[in-house]
Task: structure prediction
Amino acid sequence: MSLNIQHLQFRYKPMVPLIENLSLKIETGQIVALTGISGCGKSTLIQLLLGTLKPLKGEITFNHITFSNDHLFLIPQVRGIGVVFQDYALFPHLNVRQNVGFGLKAKASLKQIEIDRWLKIFSLGDVAFSFPHQLSGGQMQRVAIARALAPQPSLLLMDEPFSNLDAKLAYRIRQDLKPLFKQLKMTVLLVTHHREDALDIADQIIDFSSLNQ
Result:
């Protein structure tokens, strides 16, 4: 079981290549960091994996399920992927508890236990009933990561997840996350242009330009 990307192509403009013949394989439970300059297509790859963008050509499969190829395209809702964005993407009308529990499918009593677990892991108990506009940037990012991890997806995508955190907090969260990913046997693709993120958390670091050719 693994994430397989074969000969992927995508262009925003017909005559301007962005992703051309990209192939990548990530084994189950592996944490891979993609690095490279801004604008090289790393975040676009995240959107293609999520299904919010449709590739021109190529195939994406995960755990023997085809997400997209030249004849098939699964919508984002059925792909079951966790994602953390740079800009948090929290639900403004939900408090911290409700945001963290949004993707959980357990019965009500078990759901509350799971929410409490993730609030404790990310030190969010003191702001459990606060709304996003009442939180600091670091708190919002921790909520976003907790929400993505709570359903324990098999595949997690992270797009510059630590860029809005101060250096000390980012380091602590990175140190906490790697053993958690390993415990959950989660396959992780981290997109970043911060080498510290990649060095602290990834099993393998890949320069995006070496794939996209």
Remarks:
- The chain has a mean pLDDT of 91.
